[in-house]
Amino acid sequence: MTTPLDHIRNFSIVAHIDHGKSTLADRLIQLTGGLEARDMKEQVLDSMDIERERGITIKAQTVRLKYRANNGEDYILNLIDTPGHVDFAYEVSRSLAACEGSLLVVDASQGVEAQTLANVYQAIDNNHEIVVVLNKVDLPAAEPERIREQVEEVIGIDASNAVMISAKTGLGVPDVLEAIVHQLPPPREGDIAAPLKAMLVDSWYDAYLGVIVLVRIIDGVLKKGQTIRMMGTGAKYLVERTGVFTPARVNVDELGPGEFGFFTGSIKEVADTRVGDTITEDRRQTAKALPGFKPAQPVVFCGLFPVDAADFEDLRAAVGKLRLNDASFSYEMETSAALGFGYRCGFLGLLHLEIIQERLEREFNLDLIATAPSVVYRLLLNDGTVKELHNPADMPDVVKISAIEEPWIRATILTPDDYLGGILKLCQDRRGIQADLSYVGKRAMLTYDLPLNEVVFDFYDRLKSISKGYASFDYHLTDYREGDLVKMSILVNEEPVDALSMLVHRTAAEKRGRAMCEKLKELIPHHLFKIPIQAAIGGKVIARETISALRKDVTAKCYGGDVTRKRKLLDKQKEGKKRMRQFGKVDIPQEAFIQALKMGD
Ligand SMILES: Nc1nc2c(ncn2[C@@H]2O[C@H](COP(=O)(O)OP(=O)(O)OP(=O)(O)O)[C@@H](O)[C@H]2O)c(=O)[nH]1
């Protein structure tokens, strides 16, 4: 039995990070009986361990809620969870496109932030009706009335029906359910008799069921035994199971128009499923496919190498497994003179990079060295061809290059006025071009165009430290612009360390080079000989430091003393060695790579 359209509501929750989206989602699940209170693990929607630890939502999920409204009618509410971090903006946009309404959650003590704006504008672009939810009214600092006005003023939407709640205590949450039913529209179209037409919203790999495909049905019915066709790729699959998440996985006989659910079939890899693809029945096809989505493009690349070269096979298996579940992560084999065999990996952003690296280390027990993150540069070559550069080490001879283009972003920053000066300076130092400055109450709203290259390293950390954590930030890629970029090499003991080479703007090269040399000087241990550390552009050295020679050997002070203590010291040294890489005659600790690449100004 499928549910009539007017008894279905499909909605997302959009919010700035930490404004309480997951807490509210949990409350809604709890109130509608999806979970008994005692089963409630904190924040069920954030299912991966790392997500839970970091308190961020990565993988968009959906949950079907059964709700008996105050009018006595039964409704199906499909909650489509969306990630809150800028790196995952693409996942936000695809989940929003599959539903009709949004709850806009705003922390009533903090007010509108950068990602509130970015996310709500995406919802508006998708023609969503919006219910404003002012959360955390239990906090003494909450000012729901003022924030309601702010939402109207800054975002320009009607907030007269805003629901005031505390997702933490549960106060007001039942009103959210009523608002979903009465203020959000049911699915706009849907013909049960028409040929199957469904949108592929997401897919992931499950160890027991294989690839699970999340769909939103537009027309027709999806059920077991059907042969379906993906219209974009042309691939055909037999449907083996259909079901929904409540959030527990429950099989259902069929999925009808307006509904969300999943199916499994003979699909081998997540890569075989394209988000945004139209799914239809092979023997009775829908006439017109949905407008497609473009796949998420990696914007940041870095090399990942095992600390111990013998672990390469394990790394190969691990990246393969991760990719099964995360099609936005890409990799190809790379060899580095300094680091041996590894993978060049592409990510949606820096957070995505950190998460993947952490999962590889934690879930697969690998020790890794990550090279400097690099954006994708476009090289215009003299022979008229264009080459994408994912790795500074692959840069062709400069005489072959007529121009280098780099990606730019448009950033929105909201900050209390007190920190405006520091932030303006930061943006300016990072080659930013100010596009706008206005005020949201007492806070400044800054719009800047910045080269992504200047943001990937530590911009966000710097912004947070300058503003004592109060500034919020969001960005999207805009275009490629030509820049005066040069490749800077780092030489340790006269040997170039390919993993540390990077593209930098000419005006910033000397400062970066100097900082890098100083940092490496601190991080590379003394050896028995003097070690020069140099930064160079082409053949020209632009910065130099020297590590003086070591005088004593570590065990000298134990001479003639306690043997166990001596052995302990040697063991400790050996342990340290494991995390070292040898470059010519010099041992560089893994930590040196990580720290050297995370540089402040
Ligand atoms: N006092 C108070 N704290 C709340 C309320 N709702 C959520 N919080 C707290 O605010 C923090 C962030 O809440 P989350 O639900 O994780 O926020 P989120 O928006 O889902 O964050 P992301 O998943 O990272 O995007 C948590 O520490 C919650 O316990 C509320 O109504 N009152």
Any overview of this molecule?
α1 (21-31) crosses α6 and α11 (506-523) runs antiparallel to α13 (590-597). The longest helix is centred in the C-terminal third of the chain and has 18 residues, at 506-523. 25% of the residues lie in helices and 34% in strands. With 601 residues, the chain is α+β, with helices and mostly antiparallel strands. The model is unreliable at 55-60 (pLDDT under 50). The radius of gyration is 27 Å and the shape is globular. A six-stranded mixed sheet has the order 2-3-1-4-5-6, with helices on both faces. It has a six-stranded antiparallel beta barrel with strand order 7-8-14-11-10-15. Strands 21, 22, 23, 24, 25 and 26 form a six-stranded antiparallel sheet that branches. It has 13 helices and 33 strands. Bound molecules: guanosine-5'-triphosphate (GTP). Guanosine-5'-triphosphate binds at residues 15, 17-23, 55-57, 84, 135-136, 138-139, 166-168.
